[in-house]
C-alpha cells in the first residue's frame, strides 16, 4: 500500500493563470505532509536541497520516497491529465495499491488521475469532486449562501451575478465611514479583492488595492463598467460584495472533514499588509467568546459541507471587527477554502516538530518572505546565528520552502514561546 | 395577517430572456395556490375570466383577494425591484402584517421586495436566498455535485466548466449505442438540452434537438466550438453532460422542505415529445423498487438542501431507464428544481379538488396545450360535453391557465380514475 501526494494548484477554471508560473515552487509545501514510502506527483522537479531539509527535520527516509514529475515541454492542457504522467505514476507505484490520495487542491482532475490508476475511491470525497465539487468547496459565493443559510454572522453584503445587483449592494452599503470590499469568487490571499472607499483616510489590508470613489453614485457605475470583467474573470464567476471593516483581525479555524468525524486541524490569525504577509498559529489573545464563535461557526460549516459530500480540509475564515460591538457578534465569517491552504502545512509541521499539542506552549509565526541570497545562504545564516529549529528546545526557525528567485526570498516559520519571543527570533534574520 | 403570493419567473441570471415574453400568462398558475385574503403580486393584470374560474372551483372568495400589478411601461430592470411596486404592495396590505411569502421562483429579488415591506423573515429560507441561493437550488450542475456526494444513482457523466472538460466527458461516453445529452445549467422543461448521437436511429425526448455526429472525434470539437456560447449562456454557466438513455421514462418526486419536516407534495411522470408535453400524477405503474428508489433519493436530496439552508419546494427528477438492469439501479437521478415547478400547481389543485389523498383512486393527467379558440370557448365546450370537473364524481377536465394567444392554446388537467379513463376524457376535447 502506498500514499499518493499530488502537488497541484487550483484549476484554471477557478483562478485562470494566477500563480501558474510559480506552481513548481509553490507545490513544494507538499513535502511537509510526506511519510515514508509516499509517491509524490509534482509539476516540476523538486529542489533536492529543500526536500532533504524537510525529510531530515521530520525524520522521513528520503530514499523511501518516489517523485514523479510531469513530462517536460510546454504541453497544452491540464498537466494532471497527461496520459504520460499517469503512466509514470503507475510505474512509480510498482504494483502497490494506493491507500490514500492527498492533493493540495482536490478536484476532478485529481479524481481523473486516480481513476487512471484504479484508485478513484482513495480520493476523499471523490464522488463529490468528480462532479464539479471544487467549484463549490472553494467558492466565496457559495460560502456566503451556505453560511447565511446556517445563520452564521456575516458582514452585510450580497452575492452578485450581474452589475445591477452589484450596484444595488454597493450603494446600499457604501458610506463615508463604511467602505466596501469586492471579492473575486475564487482567488486567494486577498489578491482578488478590492476595497471601495469614499475617503482616503482608511488603512486597507486583505485587498490588493483600494479605489477612491466620489459621492456621486455615477462613480460606482463607472467603476463597475471598468472592472466587471476583471471581477468576474470574463463573466464566468460571481462577485461577493461586503461591508469592509478597517482594522479588523483576520482569523481562521481549519478542520479535516472525514466520513464521520470533523477534526480541528489548527486555528490562527492572518496578517495582510496589504495582502497575505504573515500568520500566527494559534491566534494570539483571542477572547473566549471570539474563539468559541470561530469554532462553533467553523464546525457548523463543516457539518454542511460534510452533508453535501465534501471530504478533506476546510478552512473557515472570519474577521474580528475592530469595533467589537458589531451587532454583538464577536466574529464575522468571510470565506471558506476547501483545499490545502497556506496554513495547512504550517500546523502540520508544527505538530510534527513541536508536538501535536504545540498550541499549548508554542506559537507558530509564519512569514511569506525572507529576502536572502539563496536557500543555502538561509540555512547557513540560521546555523551561524544558532537559531535553526532545535527539537530539544522546541524553538527556532524553520524554512518553509525553497528559495524563490523572483523576488529572491524564502518563506519561513518561527517556532517560539509567544509573539515577543518570535519577534526576537525574527530580528536575528537581519 | 396576510399571505403574499408572487408570480415571478426565474431571474435573467439563470435563464436570460427565456419565457420573458409570456411571463404574465405563465405567472397565473399562481392562482391555484390562492386562499381568502391573499395579496397577489403579478407582472401583468390577470385574466379575470380565468381568475374567477379558479376561485369558483376552489371555493375562494375573489373579492377577498388583492391583486398588485407592476407599473406599466417597458421599464428596465427586474420588475420585482421597482420601488413603485413595493409602494403599491404596501398599500394593498393596508397595514396587515405578512405572515408568509410564497413565490413561484424564490430568489434574492423576492427577499428584497419582502425586505422593503418589512417582511423579509416571512420568506422561507430568506437568509439562504438573499445570498445567491437560487443559483444553487436551481442549478443542474450543483444538483449533480450534491447527488453524487450523497452517492445517489446518476447517469454517467460530468459537470463541465470548459470545453476541454466537455470534450473529455463526451468522448468518454459517446458510442453508437450510447448517445449523450448536454444540459444548460438552468433552463427548464428540456429546452436547454441537446442530444448528441452517432446514429439517426434514435428517438429523442427531453431535449430540444438531436445533433448527428460523425465517428471522427473532430466533429465533437466542431460541435463544441459552435455551441459552447449557447450551452453556457455566454460562458456564464456550466454544462452538465450525461449518458442519454433513449426510451427512458421521466419521473419526479416533489417535496416541501420546512425548518424541521420534509413533506412529500406529489410524484408523477413527465412525458416529453420532444420537450415537456404532458404529465401523470402519480406516475402510472411504477414498481415498488422504482417508487422506493425515487422517494429515498428525493428525500436524501431534500435533507442536504435543508442542511444548506434552503426552504420551499424541491422537485427531484429521475429517469427509469428502458433497460432496467442499468447497474441494478431502478432509477437514475437527473436534476432537481428548487422552485415551483410545472407540476406543483397540478398536485395542489388535485388535492383541493379531488382530496388530499387523490392519488389513491385518481390520476391527474396534465397537458400543456389544447388548441382552442378562446378560454370562453374551452369552458363552453367542457359544459356542452358534460366533462367539466365534477366535484361529486371527482372526475372531469380542469383548465390550468387562461388562453395563450401564441399558439392559441389552453393547458388542462384531466382528473380520472386511471390512464384509460383520462384518454377517453381527452378524446372528448375533439
UniProtKB/TrEMBL annotation, chains A, B:
<dbReference type="GO" id="GO:0016874">
    <property type="term" value="F:ligase activity"/>
</dbReference>
<dbReference type="InterPro" id="IPR041356">
    <property type="entry name" value="PGM1_C"/>
</dbReference>
<dbReference type="Pfam" id="PF18604">
    <property type="entry name" value="PreAtp-grasp"/>
</dbReference>
<keyword id="KW-0067">ATP-binding</keyword>
<dbReference type="Pfam" id="PF18105">
    <property type="entry name" value="PGM1_C"/>
</dbReference>
<protein>
    <submittedName>
        <fullName>Peptide ligase PGM1-related protein</fullName>
    </submittedName>
</protein>
<dbReference type="InterPro" id="IPR040754">
    <property type="entry name" value="PreAtp-grasp"/>
</dbReference>
<keyword id="KW-0547">Nucleotide-binding</keyword>
<feature type="domain" description="ATP-grasp">
    <location>
        <begin position="144"/>
        <end position="367"/>
    </location>
</feature>
<dbReference type="InterPro" id="IPR011761">
    <property type="entry name" value="ATP-grasp"/>
</dbReference>
<keyword id="KW-0436">Ligase</keyword>
Amino acid at each position: 500500500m502506498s500514499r499518493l501526494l499530488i502537488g497541484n494548484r487550483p484549476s484554471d477554471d477557478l483562478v485562470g493563470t494566477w500563480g501558474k508560473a510559480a506552481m513548481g515552487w509553490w507545490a513544494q509545501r507538499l513535502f511537509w505532509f510526506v511519510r515514508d514510502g509516499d509517491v509524490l506527483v509534482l509539476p516540476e522537479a523538486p529542489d533536492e536541497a529543500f526536500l532533504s531539509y524537510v525529510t531530515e527535520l521530520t525524520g522521513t527516509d528520503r530514499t523511501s520516497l518516489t517523485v514523479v514529475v510531469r513530462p517536460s515541454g510546454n504541453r497544452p492542457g491540464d498537466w494532471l491529465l497527461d496520459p504520460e504522467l499517469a503512466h509514470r505514476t503507475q510505474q512509480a507505484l510498482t504494483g502497490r495499491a494506493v491507500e490514500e490520495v492527498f492533493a493540495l487542491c482536490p478536484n476532478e482532475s485529481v479524481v481523473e488521475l486516480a481513476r487512471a490508476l484504479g484508485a478513484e475511491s482513495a480520493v476523499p470525497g471523490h464522488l463529490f469532486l468528480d462532479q464539479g465539487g471544487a467549484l463549490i468547496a472553494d467558492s466565496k459565493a457559495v460560502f456566503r449562501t451556505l453560511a447565511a443559510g446556517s445563520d452564521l454572522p456575516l458582514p452585510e453584503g450580497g452575492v452578485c451575478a450581474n452589475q445591477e445587483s452589484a450596484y444595488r449592494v454597493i450603494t446600499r452599503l457604501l458610506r463615508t465611514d463604511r467602505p466596501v470590499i469586492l471579492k473575486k469568487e475564487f482567488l486567494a490571499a486577498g489578491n482578488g479583492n478590492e476595497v471601495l472607499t469614499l475617503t482616503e483616510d482608511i488603512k486597507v489590508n486583505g485587498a490588493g488595492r483600494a479605489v477612491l470613489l466620489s459621492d456621486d453614485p455615477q462613480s460606482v457605475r463607472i467603476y463597475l463598467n471598468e472592472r466587471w470583467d476583471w471581477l468576474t474573470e470574463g463573466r464566468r464567476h460571481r462577485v461577493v460584495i461586503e461591508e469592509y471593516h478597517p482594522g479588523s483581525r483576520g482569523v481562521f479555524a481549519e478542520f479535516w472533514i472525514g466520513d464521520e468525524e470533523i477534526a480541528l486541524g489548527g486555528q490562527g490569525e492572518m496578517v495582510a499588509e496589504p495582502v497575505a504577509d504573515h500568520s500566527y498559529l494559534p491566534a494570539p489573545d483571542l477572547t473566549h467568546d471570539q474563539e468559541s464563535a470561530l469554532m462553533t461557526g467553523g464546525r457548523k460549516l463543516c457539518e454542511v459541507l460534510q452533508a453535501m459530500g465534501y471530504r478533506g480540509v476546510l478552512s473557515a475564515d472570519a474577521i474580528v471587527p475592530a469595533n467589537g460591538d458589531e451587532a454583538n457578534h464577536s466574529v464575522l465569517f468571510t470565506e471558506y477554502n476547501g483545499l490545502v491552504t497556506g496554513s495547512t502545512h504550517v500546523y502540520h509541521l508544527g505538530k510534527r516538530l513541536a508536538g501535536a499539542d504545540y498550541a499549548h506552549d508554542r506559537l507558530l509565526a509564519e512569514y511569506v518572505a525572507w529576502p536572502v541570497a539563496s536557500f543555502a545562504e538561509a540555512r547557513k545564516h540560521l546555523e551561524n546565528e544558532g537559531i535553526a529549529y532545535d527539537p530539544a528546545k522546541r524553538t527556532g526557525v524553520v524554512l518553509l520552502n525553497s528559495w524563490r528567485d523572483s523576488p529572491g526570498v524564502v518563506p519561513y516559520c518561527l517556532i517560539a514561546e509567544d509573539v515577543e519571543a518570535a519577534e526576537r527570533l525574527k530580528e536575528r534574520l537581519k
